[in-house]
Design a protein that fits this description.
The chain has one domain: START domain (Alpha-D-Glucose-1,6-Bisphosphate, Chain A, domain 4, 2-Layer Sandwich), CATH 3.30.530.20. The protein has 3 helices and 7 strands, in the order βααββββββα. A hairpin with a 2-residue loop joins strand 6 and strand 7.
Length: 180
């Protein structure tokens, strides 16, 4: 890829007029486990639920258990900021075991694209999580981002990846993935 070029799946699916207001969160995680295991844990609905116990997250519609596949949706119910929220996302791109993207189709954000990129580096899998979103409510949404949402989502995603790392590096992954 030419220097400075972005792969098509990294281009945000948002109109240019929102580009200045878009927070983009990026989490880097090194996991000492095979890339296929890490990739599948990251798309496991059950592993996600385990990683999000602090928000009482659960899948309530669409695919509610197992591994999310291309084109499938999942609707989550979770508690953030003391309120119960629902959000539906769809798996819109999959290149196993290198990348997948899930994008919001209904929920509290105006939009989001969540890219998960994986690279094997010896016995370490390097994961880059890019959460690219736009909050609703214009200026009020940008203020909420600055004061609350951005930091909350950064901590939420980092905790999720800590749990994925713990599961992948030990035997905790076994209940979430089919036998190889």
């Amino acid at each position: 890829m030419a220097r400075g070029a972005r792969a098509a799946w990294l281009r945000p699916s948002v109109p240019t007029r929102y580009a200045a207001a878009m927070p983009v969160l990026e989490i880097h995680t090194a996991i000492q486990a095979p890339i296929e295991r890490v990739f599948d844990l990251c798309r496991s609905i059950d592993a996600h639920t385990t990683s999000a116990t602090g928000t009482s997250e659960r899948a309530i519609a669409g695919r509610t258990t197992g591994l999310l596949e291309l084109g499938e949706t999942v609707t989550w119910s979770a508690r953030h900021f003391g309120l119960r929220w629902r959000l539906t996302s769809r798996m819109v791109a999959v290149d196993r075991p290198r990348h997948f993207r899930d994008s919001m189709v209904a929920g509290v954000f105006r939009r989001f694209d969540h890219d998960h990129t994986f690279r094997q580096d010896g016995d370490v899998t390097r994961v880059v999580d890019v959460f690219d979103y736009t909050s609703p409510l214009g200026v009020l949404g940008r203020l909420a981002d600055a004061l609350l949402v951005k930091g909350h989502m950064q901590r939420f995603l980092a905790e999720r990846m800590r749990t994925i790392r713990e599961l992948a590096e030990g035997d905790g992954w076994r209940p979430f993935l089919p036998p190889a």
